[in-house]
Amino acid sequence: MGAIPANIESERVQALLTYRILDTPAEGEFDDYARLIAKVCGTEIGAMTLLDSERQWVKAVHGPLAREIPRDHAFCPHTMLQADVLEVPDTLLDPRFAQSTLVVAAPFVRFYAGVALINRAGVALGTLCVFDSKPSRLNATQRRLLVIAAAHITAQLELRRAVLQLLEEKRLAADLRVSVTESNQSQQDLTAMLVHDLKSPLTAVSVNATWLFEDPSLTADQRAAASDIVGASAQLAGMVNDLLDVSRAEDGALIVDRTSVVELAVVAQVAIDRARAASVERGQTLELVVAQPGHCVDADAKILERVVSNLIDNAQKYAPRDSTVRVELSAEGDHEILRVIDQGKGIPAEQRDAVFEKYFQVQQGVAARPSHGLGLAFCRLAIEAHRGTIAVEDQPTGCVFRVSLPCSADLG
Predict the structure, then answer these.
(1) In whole angstroms, what is the distance from residue 240 CA to residue 155 CA?
(2) Which of 82, 135, 308, 371 would bridge 90 by S-S if both were Cys, CB 3.0 to 4.6 A apart?
């Protein structure tokens, strides 16, 4: 099947390996995109695939598709040879694919459309694609959504690799016993460069998805898909900001403006509104409970909004469907208390302090809470910069994150 020029194939495969994603377990954020594009395009199968030297490996799939496909029978190599969407309305009429095992045997593919996942260096890593057992065609909106979703997945992959690079930098610094100052400066320079490189593609994805969302001709499913991409782009942008701000905070350079009186109920409501679409998708309910009005602190509102958003996002990931994620506000002495409560599996007592460390992953068997690496670390650094504390509280079931902040001096 489609031949990628030999002079670039070796370098392409080496670039793919730097993401350390081949043969990794299923991940919700990628599975969601496979499901999303299948729904938007009206197809039986949606998939995110990666192409190594011997096979097409399926990282995420919705529908009946094998996890590994021999390169000679894959559609992926052809898609990666072009910058735009490759669409095959009827595979039996296309000599490139008519004899593929995907066509002549289950799942008996008759329709295919895909777009390459191209990183910021212009290297094609794999594809985001859809399949169906009946001939078909995409309309212009469906093609546009496929392209935007692929760009967002690529940004997610870039963020994953950025974190891996920072971890490697840290390990090498320890192995070589370089000076603390030299090591910190090197990591800060790398962080700043990675964040700069990631922000441009994320902005492009968000702008395009927002533009598409405002198109009056969209169907309800297409509008929901565009909305999901806008929300996911904002979430990913927040993760990029966490990466930068954690680095700044560790160097004492995180700027927190505590000159404003901020009402916690307003901050919490902003964060809840941002998380509303995700809660609907997950079948969850978000609830704000305020013991009494007037919970005010001297704080940087934008930083606190990100803290609460991170805590809500963390809760949503591990709370079961048809459950409630609750944000509670109360007062204890001269401190305002904010709690984010979910009904998930909880965190073992012996690991509750460690969850705020960079890249820590809770070890709890099948009920593990894997960490994206920086969200909770940012929360701790940001709250401590406000002279507050954050901790995981005891609870018989579920998980409670408790934030304590001094009451506003203006109200004292």
Answers:
(1) 10
(2) 135
Cα angle vertex 313, ends 311, 317, to 5°? 120
Q: Kindly list the domain boundaries of the chain, sorted by start residue.
A: 6-138, 144-250, 260-411
What letter would DSSP give residue 367?
Answer: G
Both tokens assigned to 330: 């109360």
How far is Cα 384 from Cα 404, in angstroms, rounded to an integer? 10
Which amino acid would we find at residue 380?
R
Strands 335-342 and 296-299: unpaired
Does the pLDDT at position 185 exceed 80? no
Class of domain 144-250: mainly alpha
Q: By three-state DSSP, how is residue 23 classified? A: coil
Residue 341 contacts residue 315 (beta carbons within 8 Å): yes
Tell me if the bond preceding 107 is cis, omega within 30° of 0: yes
User: Is domain 6-138 annotated with CATH 3.30.450.40?
Assistant: yes
Predicted confidence at residue 183, as pLDDT, reads 47
Superfamily covering domain 260-411: Histidine kinase-like ATPase, C-terminal domain (3.30.565.10)
Say if pTM beats, i.e. exceeds, 0.85.
no
